[in-house]
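Ligand-bound model needed. zinc ion.
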Amino acid sequence: MIRKTLAALACATMLATGAHAQTAAPIQPDVALMRDAVKTLASDAFEGRAPATAAEPKVLDYIIGKFRAVGLQPGVHGGWLQDVPTVAIAGHDHSGLHITGKGQDLTFAYGSDYVVGSYREVAQTTLANAPLVFVGFGVNAPELGWNDYAGVDMHGKIAVILINDPDYWMTSEDGLFKGRRMTYYGRWTYKFEEAARQGAAGALIVHDTFPAAYGWNVVQSSWSGPQRFVASDDHGMSQTQINGWVQHGVAAKLFAAAGLDLDAQAEAARHKGFHAVPLGLSANVAFANTITRSVSHNVIGVLPGRTHPEDVVLYSAHWDHLGHCTPDAKGDGICNGAVDNATGVAALLALAEANVKTGPAARSQVFVALTLEESGLLGSEYYAQHPVYPLSHTVGGVNMDALPPSGAAHDYAMTGGDKSDLTGVLRSTLADMGLRETAEDHTERGHYYRSDHFSMAKRGVPMFDLSRGHDLLIGGTAAGDAAAEDYVTHRYHQPSDEYSDSWDWSGITEDVGLFYRLGRTLADGNTWPNWHPTDEFRAARDASRASGQ
Ligand SMILES: [Zn+2]
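Prediction:
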């Protein structure tokens, strides 16, 4: 184990000092292959590619056909498909949230005041007289010496948690939690995961529009339907009994009922050494659950390595999209997902083809078309929980999600910022290609935590998530900004995200050229990139590499 650690350190040093400056040779990506993929997958015949619908077999057949045609081998123990079983849990017959203690008797309404759901597969959820404990931001970050749960036993209790992380309000990115830049600890999904690890009976996040970056209406609507999860062997019993959100004004009333001031408590929670505060109040909440199961599929192909086939480099892109959706003004009710993410699948195919043409690398290269990204990264979560190729032997990878059909650019941004040794690989490659690194925009939105690479990253695998910059070869930043704005406003998750023959493929071609060189550099190298020592995923990587699993 010690030797392994030293070897990993030596590799990290080589990357950091630029000793590993050799990057892969350039390629000419197959535009005809990519055009056919987007045109086909985003056609109305594919109905917007909703998982576990009649559209799914068409998508799977298409991707398998192309994987086979470009020369990949089946990647799942001789087959092409990995089953992804999921569970949808829909709550109903909500009791209302009743609060007692300190002489209080308060009742809050489901929907307008709070939302709640079960991550456990149980027919009925009932929580009676569960004490409420304010745990600040609900963060346990050993690498930063920060633990909001220090000294409290959460069993049987409900954690009341602030959204975002302790220095979200900063304008710079200098804080312990990277200032205004979102960290994993700021994401709502993390809050529920950590509360479960602490053994809490429940977790309620206090909504606040600025740090959440969306209004209560978004929370209410996204929690009104069933919540979908990867099926687990323990049927979710290691999760809390209830997870949910309370509206900000409701939280203020709760704190007032406890004789506390929410704003003052939230201020105190931003500082190191904050101690969790029992509110002296208890919650009562009940609801019934309807449970529905379904199975979708990841498609996996492999180009086995020449000398180290047990070590793998991953390339991933989600094939799913939203399917039938709210019709637009023209009556078009299919969300085709041409950019999001037929382009990523197209790039995946072009990368597979280019690598087969070059010939196998030293290490294996695994190409994964993932399902259920739009339902909460479930295809990648399932893969990460059940890796066909062990994560300890996964060198790193590239995830591709929504490659804009705007032109080639002079610059690329690394989503998430400089988190790992992959930064060194990127910088050498960009320099070789005459490209420039640019800053990610809207770092407060936490884009790194919102697509499939994150499922791998949080289990330690360093993953690239790159976005082409706005400084376009033709039209400069004005054209790049306009194209990005047009996509976000007029196409993103709408029926108008459609293929057009007028697409400019120069940008996507540039993306694939870059991704090829990044992946190939890892696949022909012998380094084991790791996260930087204070990074949120470093401990997971070290544990994974040491485990050998
Ligand atoms: Zn996407």
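The CA atoms of residues 12 and 529 lie 6 Å apart.
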